[in-house]
Design goal:
It holds the Pfam family EamA. It is found in: Cell membrane. By secondary structure, the protein is mostly helical. It contains 13 helices and no strands. It has one domain. About 80% of the residues lie in helices and about 0% in strands. The radius of gyration is 19 Å and the shape is globular.
Length: about 300
């Protein structure tokens, strides 16, 4: 798989997460954020499990990863749980507008983490592209943020943790079978969420039943399918580029909000979409042009 195809898969991932954001938001009317996160990823793990078993049979290796790789999967599952549960907690006390913008901070945080953790410097175009993306998300949110609430701070923490997940996944994905990786981290996330939920919030089958539609969509589609696409695609692209393409979830969330919920996008939102697409084109095209420049040979 070449980098262009991988980035296209990440764009599809962003679109899937965008519509999934609607389900995540409405689910909070019926169920707590920790239980929702746990059950959601249990559904995701069960959806991916048959594919992971088929992948293992074709590879001629056991389904269960070795101890060193399992430790990496556990850390990935923990980061996945922490990032998405903090986002869900944030949605309880902040607006969707603020949540969308603040979650998008991971686009800027991801390359900084790459430099801080791995001493990996991205292509120079990533820096202005990250700023363009951040500006686009800001305009997409309406260009106005109120004072930071507790939910806003939870969402800022989500952005940092998600950037950590993106970076670490980029380090692990190349040495792992993608479906095994996805399925294992989903099960770990589910175990943590379902085990922790009774300690911090109400639990019950009635709560799960009340949000079953959102759980299945967020789990199977925007969880099982989209996160698996992410795990596959990140083997063939860089973490900073992945962050920018996946940030298109804000754009698609606005689109599906208009389509499904009757929301309308103003001029600021349209300008934000333009900035995001410009950033993605810069990240994709400029490195390719540089490689093909005969003077660089």
């Amino acid at each position: 798989m070449n980098r262009a195809t991988a980035n296209l898969l990440l764009l599809i991932t962003g679109a899937t997460w965008g519509i999934g954001f609607v389900a995540q938001s409405t689910a909070m009317e019926a169920i707590g954020p920790i239980l929702f996160t746990g059950v959601r990823f249990l559904a995701a793990a069960l959806a991916v499990l048959p594919l992971a078993i088929l992948e293992a049979r074709r590879a001629g290796k056991p389904v269960v990863p070795g101890v060193p790789m399992l430790r990496r999967y556990v850390l990935l599952g923990l980061l996945l749980f922490l990032s998405l549960s903090t986002q869900q907690i944030g949605l309880l006390t902040t607006s969707v507008t603020n949540s969308g913008f603040l979650t998008g901070l991971y686009v800027v945080i991801t390359p900084f983490l790459g430099v801080a953790l791995w001493r990996v410097w991205p292509h120079p175009v990533v820096w202005p592209a990250a700023l363009l993306t951040l500006g686009g998300i800001y305009l997409l949110s309406g260009g106005a943020l109120t004072g930071l609430t507790a939910g806003d701070w939870w969402t800022i923490l989500c952005a940092f943790l998600w950037a950590c997940h993106v970076q670490y996944l980029g380090r692990v994905a190349g040495a792992a079978r993608p479906l095994q990786l996805a399925c294992t981290q989903f099960f770990i996330c589910a175990i943590i969420g379902i085990g922790l939920a009774p300690l911090v919030e109400p639990v019950g089958f009635d709560l799960v039943a009340g949000a079953m539609g959102e759980i299945l969509f967020a789990g199977v589609v925007s969880g099982g399918i989209a996160f698996t696409l992410q795990a596959i695609a990140q083997r063939h692209t860089t973490a900073p580029q992945a962050a920018i393409f996946m940030s298109s979830e804000a754009l698609f969330a606005a689109f599906f909000g208009a389509l499904l919920l009757g929301e309308r996008m103003g001029l600021l939102g349209l300008a934000g979409c333009l900035l995001i697409f410009t950033a993605m084109l810069l990240v994709e095209l400029l490195p390719m042009m540089r490689r093909r420049d005969p003077s660089k040979a």
